[in-house]
Amino acid sequence: MLKVQVQRKQGEFTVDAAFSVQEKGITALFGPSGAGKTSIVNMIAGLTRPDSGNIVLNGHCLFDSDKGINLAPEMRRVGYIFQDGRLFPHLSVRGNLTYGMRFVPRSNQYVTFGQVVELLGIESLLDRRPAKLSGGEKQRVAIGRALLCSPALFLMDEPLASLDDMRKSEVLPFILRLCHEFSTPVLYVSHSLDEISRLADQMVVLDHGSVVASGRLEDLPAFRIEKKAVTA
């Protein structure tokens, strides 16, 4: 489980949010642009330091302002998938996939290269460079690279935002398969209710840097979200 209680002032904007993410499934972090979604995931990932608060993942403290704890990003076992794939252009798909896994202790590895290639359907792409990939293919490779690092948590910051509808429909089933085949929880940032209704089990709603609602989708009738089936 992920427990977050953070405060950070950024110019005139202040993030003051507290919420938790369950041990499995997809939790959507929802809100309009400027609500503080990316600021929060950056703090969880260790890319930005909160002014105060604490972040705990599966009983391990990642950040605690009172105790002076602030683990480096590479020590947090968090897989971060951005809006664009951010693949290494000089490496093949195979090289991108395996880049991070060599830094993961064998005792923490819970997925193999072959499993990831099969899950994401990317065997035919392994020898290509990122410049030869479509947007959807790049995002699948980015998901695979993060998965091969065997994270305890996935952070997905609007991973479909740069894709057209066809590419979105290509990637969505793989995100669902990821959650069904592995127990790793996902914190999924989006301002698209359609994406959330297709993917998420629960939702945290942000406005002006604060949590205004949270819970399972069916328990948030004010948002009128209906879960839609997506076949893999």
3D structure, described in words:
With 232 residues, the protein is an alpha/beta fold. The chain has one domain: P-loop containing nucleotide triphosphate hydrolases (Rossmann fold, 3-Layer(aba) Sandwich), CATH 3.40.50. The protein is 26% helix and 27% strand. It is built from six helices and eleven strands. The protein has a six-stranded mixed sheet with strand order 7-8-9-3-10-11, sandwiched between helices. It has a five-stranded antiparallel sheet with strand order 2-1-4-5-6, covered by helices on one side. The longest helix has 17 residues.
Name some characteristics of this structure.
five-stranded antiparallel sheet; 26% helix; globular; disordered C terminus; 232 residues; Rossmann fold; alpha/beta; six-stranded mixed sheet
The number of strands is: 11
Q: Largest sheet at a glance?
A: 6 strands, mixed
Order of helices and strands: EEEHEEEEHHHEHEHEE
Please tell me the overall pLDDT.
Answer: 89
| Cα gyration radius (Å) | 17 Å
The level of helicity is: 25-40%
For the terminal residues, how far apart are their CA atoms? 26 Å
How much of the sequence lies in strands comes to 25-35%
- Tell me the overall shape: globular
CATH class: Alpha Beta
Number of domains: 1
CATH H-tier superfamily: P-loop containing nucleotide triphosphate hydrolases
CATH topology: Rossmann fold
Biggest sheet: strands side by side, in what order? 7-8-9-3-10-11
Number of helices: 6
Low-confidence stretches: 225-232
Per CATH, which architecture? Answer: 3-Layer(aba) Sandwich
Secondary-structure class: alpha/beta
